[in-house]
Amino acid sequence: NREIHLASRPQGWPTEDTFRLVETDVPTPGPGQIVVRNQFMSVDPYMRGRMNDVKSYVPPYALDAPLDGAAIGEVVASEAADIAVGTTVQHGLGWREYALLDATAARQVDPDVAPVSAYLSVLGMTGLTAYAGLLEVAAMKPGETVFVSAAAGAVGSLVGQIAKLKGAGRVIGSAGSPAKVERLRALGFDAAFDYHDGPVRESLRAAAPDGVDVYFDNVGGDHLEAAISAMNLHGRAAICGMISQYNATEPSPAPRNLALVIGKRLTLRGFLVNDHHDVRPAFVRDVAGWLRDGTLSYDETIVDGIENAPAAFLGLLRGDNLGKMLVKV
Ligand code: NDP
Prior knowledge:
Elements: E1 2-6, E2 19-23, E3 33-42, H1 46-50, E4 71-78, E5 88-91, E6 98-102, E7 107-108, H2 125-137, E8 145-148, H3 154-165, E9 170-175, H4 178-186, E10 191-194, H5 200-207, E11 212-217, H6 221-230, E12 231-239, H7 260-263, E13 267-270, H8 280-293, E14 300-304, H9 309-318, E15 324-328
Helix pairs in contact: 2-3, 5-6
The chain binds NADPH dihydro-nicotinamide-adenine-dinucleotide phosphate.
Keywords: Oxidoreductase
Domain Enoyl reductase (ER): 15-327
EC number: 1.-.-.-
């Protein structure tokens, strides 16, 4: 059994030395436990925050112990009455080939409904974040103009498409390369720009001449500042993530125009997907339907092998991924 440990706490950008590949024995289950052979593990930006030794909404990773995160795999040994060997389950012990867990910590999923990786992307936490953030937190209404940053990423690419499917008037996305911008246009975004091409404020103003009603923030910093300037009266921003800040060693000066929220009566609302499980039934109904009729696309970037999980994580922070970053264990 190979697993990835946290070898050191990064200051600024993590490197390969942040991680250590460790070999251990394949575990055996005790009463009520199962052993899962992981097939896919999720690689997520929030994992960067857990590498810092600070109090947050999830506890920090321990040094010299395996990292964890969402994973999916097949039960290969079971001492639990209600989970048979061969069952596909989702659970929270990624970053290792074999996971030992209490059966109660595993959720059975049906591998015939969708490819199993989809439970970690479009049908999982990623999809729910996009759906709940856009429709509940920002309360997007038909006809509105929506701007989303990190738009070619896992959450962002779904936000833009769901906005169109729910009747947005105009959807704009920003991303970090010409290939990603092209992908956004193919996904049905009305406008897209590469944020390296100039100040975000100018690119956004050109893409949204009539302003923005809803901003779905994945990036923070200059992107948030540009969105505040572009937002219309009573605009709403769902503050989902601020990936531009995760490796920063100094606080960002942006947004420098926060006072505009007063005159424009803006709402900036932070959220965590975990508080929005109440919308799961509507999410599953809508997203499953859109996947079935082909109106919703989802990209996955799949890196092969647990030994390459650190590289996948570093790549995610640099923007190597199109859609959801996953490791095939
Ligand atoms: P993504 O698939 O979007 O991957 C991250 C992307 O961020 C990269 O591909 C990169 O794309 C972009 N990026 C990295 N650095 C910068 C930068 N300095 N400026 C602009 N873009 C940058 O990840 P997810 O979809 O999983 O997550 C998106 C956001 O949502 C993150 O901020 C994450 O923390 C947050 N999140 C929040 C949740 C919540 O409950 N609030 C739940 C899930 C995610 P590019 O090439 O375009 O730069």
